[in-house]
Write a structure and sequence with these properties.
Blueprint: H1 3-21, E1 25-30, E2 35-40, E3 47-52, H2 56-61, H3 68-84, E4 91-93, H4 102-112
Length: about 120
């Protein structure tokens, strides 16, 4: 089993548990250059809000999309967009990534800006 397969196995276990709970899910994904966040409905079929460092307005503000400062900006933005849609409580789906660095920064910024998880 390689690194990607291991991460996806961890992600499947988390997503199965969140699906049982029937709660709105904040899912993140990261690459070397960018970080992405999406809020999915409780049934998992609709994207309620999305934010990423690949968006034009964030790219103008941030020189690099693959660092902790960029993750904090995305966390703040996703929290604002989710609250605008009426979502205040979510389950955090880290997609099998370790909870440190950029993933942790995004989560803490989202919490500071009003999302509960």
């Amino acid at each position: 089993m390689n690194k990607k397969e291991s991460r996806l196995r961890r992600a499947r276990k988390t997503r199965a548990k969140i699906a049982e709970l029937k709660i709105v899910r904040l899912c993140i994904n990261r690459s070397n250059c960018h970080i992405y966040a999406q809020v999915f409905s409780d049934c998992g079929t609709q994207v309620l809000a999305a934010a990423s460092t690949a968006e034009a307005d964030l790219r103008k503000q941030l020189p690099n999309g693959g660092n902790v400062e960029a993750a904090k900006a995305v966390g703040k933005l996703i929290a604002e967009r989710a609250k605008a849609k009426g979502v205040t409580e979510v389950a955090f789906d880290r997609s099998g990534f370790k909870y440190h660095g950029r993933v942790k920064a995004l989560a803490e910024a989202a919490r500071e800006n009003g999302l509960k998880f």
